[in-house]
Amino acid sequence: QTGHFTFDPGYTSTGSTESAITYIDGGKGTLLYRGYPIEQLADKSSFLEVAYLLLKGELPSKEEFDVFSDTVTRHTMLHQQMVKFFEGFRRDAHPMAIVCGAVGAMSAFYHDSTDITDPEQRTIASHRLIAKIPTIVAWAYKYSIGQPFVYPRNDLDYASNFLRMCFAVPAEDYEVSPTIAKAMDRIFTLHADHEQNASTSTVRLAGSSHANPFACIAAGVASLWGPAHGGANEACLQMLREIGTVDRIPEFVARAKDKSDPFRLMGFGHRVYKNFDPRATVMQQTAKEVLAELGVANNPTLQVAQELERIALEDEYFIEKKLYPNVDFYSGIILDAIGFPTEMFTAIFALARTVGWTSQWAEMIEDPKQKIGRPRQLYTGATSRDYVEISKR
Ligand code: SDX
């Protein structure tokens, strides 16, 4: 016999997290990083400056930024022994499986920055994570397509370095287009942090036990992988391709509304935004810029996406449920146009979110009131009962 009964476990779990990093107003479509609107940061700032802002709480002076940028740039290489770690995976491993494993393995290669009680080691771990995650993600891509690893260069900015590590080959270098690099940098900024989403909450909970920072960020990578969360960008482009042409959109919209059908419109809806996702607005504009730059403005996938958005936004079901395109709806179209396979989309999301995860982890671990996480439970199982011998069952 089961029944709801509660008892006082003797501790208070607030159930909510205090943080000064990111603010979201889901009704107004507001997203602020340390008080600065995402639209202004995406337009005027750079990902590395946003990383500094999220980590330290203030925009850097020129000198502060130069020191930070130089520190990150000079830590982009991986321990050469990690090459063998990558080579242990099957060639057809999903990039997220490799990224999750490689980030966790950093605690085996950089154990001189795993003592979370040492402020200096915490800072070094944060800088190593932000500096090395592009190399890890690029190498996961190279490994999955059977191409040699390309090493980072110190004369390139953060986004350009990542693009070159993904697309250069020993036979010929990759000329980074400024428009593409700017779009990549903006995609990183739009994905950098997002308050207490599933993967960030995972990082905080893992970190609350004082596990090393690399293990905590690896836990965040694992949580982001799910199609309901960071995996939605990969699922969204696959959905747009399955729809294929605008005349098939009504069929898929009908399926998304049919409660007996598990199909949902990928890239639509959000737990917090019940109005538009401000990141999607910037992303749509960026998609148009990138596709125009690449001479594929009439990309059929973009046409399906724009028509799907128009139809959904006029549909009473989506209006009633307050479903709008989210950050994942357009990002896949841009990444596809740049040349990434869909399997890489969530790994790129993880690259950018590493800044947010690291900032949130640091904020949690530096809080003197910090305690180990222990979410409350409402017990719905059997009430106490006596054991029954198997002969009597
Ligand atoms: C990210 O938390 C974050 O901040 C995440 C993120 C970040 O930056 O970290 O923003 C990144 O994960 C964006 C979301 C990416 N996921 C998707 O695009 C997958 C498709 N979206 C859905 O799975 C869904 O919208 C979620 C998971 C995003 C939100 O799920 P919820 O909280 O259950 O949505 P809801 O309860 O507010 O939905 C209200 C109703 C429900 O119907 P009823 O139970 O009320 O009848 O709308 C329905 C849902 O079934 N619904 C959808 C839908 N999304 C919600 N119906 C059809 N298609 C959809 N996409």
TrEMBL record:
<protein>
    <recommendedName>
        <fullName>Citrate synthase</fullName>
    </recommendedName>
</protein>
<dbReference type="Pfam" id="PF00285">
    <property type="entry name" value="Citrate_synt"/>
</dbReference>
<dbReference type="InterPro" id="IPR016142">
    <property type="entry name" value="Citrate_synth-like_lrg_a-sub"/>
</dbReference>
<dbReference type="InterPro" id="IPR019810">
    <property type="entry name" value="Citrate_synthase_AS"/>
</dbReference>
<keyword id="KW-0808">Transferase</keyword>
<comment type="pathway">
    <text>Carbohydrate metabolism; tricarboxylic acid cycle; isocitrate from oxaloacetate: step 1/2.</text>
</comment>
<dbReference type="InterPro" id="IPR036969">
    <property type="entry name" value="Citrate_synthase_sf"/>
</dbReference>
<dbReference type="InterPro" id="IPR024176">
    <property type="entry name" value="Citrate_synthase_bac-typ"/>
</dbReference>
<keyword id="KW-0816">Tricarboxylic acid cycle</keyword>
<dbReference type="InterPro" id="IPR002020">
    <property type="entry name" value="Citrate_synthase"/>
</dbReference>
<comment type="similarity">
    <text>Belongs to the citrate synthase family.</text>
</comment>
<dbReference type="InterPro" id="IPR010953">
    <property type="entry name" value="Citrate_synthase_typ-I"/>
</dbReference>
<dbReference type="InterPro" id="IPR016143">
    <property type="entry name" value="Citrate_synth-like_sm_a-sub"/>
</dbReference>
